[in-house]
Design goal:
- By secondary structure, this protein is of the alpha/beta class.
- It contains twelve helices and twelve strands.
- The two termini are 15 Å apart.
- The protein binds phosphoric acid mono(formamide)ester.
Length: 336
Amino acid sequence: MLKTFNDLADFSDEEIRALLDLANRLDAHPEPEALKGKVLSLLFLSPSLRTLASFQAAMVRLGGGSFVISPDMSIHGLESRHGIVMDGVAAEHIREAVPVIASYGDAIGIRAFAERKNLEDDMAENEFRALTSLVDKPWINMESAMGHPCQNLADWKTLDDYAVPANGGKFVLSWAYHPKALPLAVPASTLYTAARRGMDVTVLRPEGFELPPAVMDKARTAAENAGGSLRESDDRREAMEGAHVIYAKSWSSTRHYGDRIADQKLRNELDDWCVDEPWFEPAAPDCRFMHCLPVRRGVVVADGILDGPRSIVIHEARNRMLAQMAVLHQMLGGKA
Ligand code: CP
């Protein structure tokens, strides 16, 4: 039985294949009673559309139920600092709130984005570990500082669904412009996923937006073990040569991590990093466009790409539900 779903790196190739096969099976052959009577607690400390809706839909489709807690609801203000005298606005500490929420369900999903103050703290997943240490139930990472495994499993399924070659497939993870500094969770874990799938992966990014060495090393090892490769470039034409997929995502400057003003100054010069048709000239003719969503039209990517045949973002988002159904089925002991 699955106890945690936190990082695809925790799973063998066979275990990942089993989850993908189960996701496909549950799509083709629904099991509306598999999780009858089971409850999933969903704690969102950061905003969401897809993760929030797809987990609830997944539980309903498997015959179970779920409930959501987030700071936007009329809950007591939550405090997370250690040793604080709680004489301010917050009336409840996570040390009570999290185990209480977990106690109502059979498993819990937790989302807490990176603080984006200190790269080492975020890389160590200090905030997320503090939350999961309070839980004595199976738990799912619904996006932490550095990981988004549900997105990763859905993306792997999407690549399979579109018959994008694993070995020999060319995957470009491209930085894209965004007015705000965004977390590293999606780019870091997407990079690992494509590498783990055995693809030839290129990280296309401007100077100052290099992914951390530990992230690159983890992906490089995975790629080499799976028969793929990893390189990085700031040259769009070179990176896109023969590409089967471009996966666009914006992320924070690692050179100026935690320094909002310096990051802003650097990214302000880069608003031409908006994916558009000319990017695809050197690519494979049917090169696909992927993005985890939400995406800013006309900022990250042109309307024509999102609305055209290259885009597979809606299929990718639907796969979130199917991938999570597979995870929940294995975690909560689903029976056909
Ligand atoms: N891709 C993703 O996780 O979307 P949400 O932030 O809307 O959940």
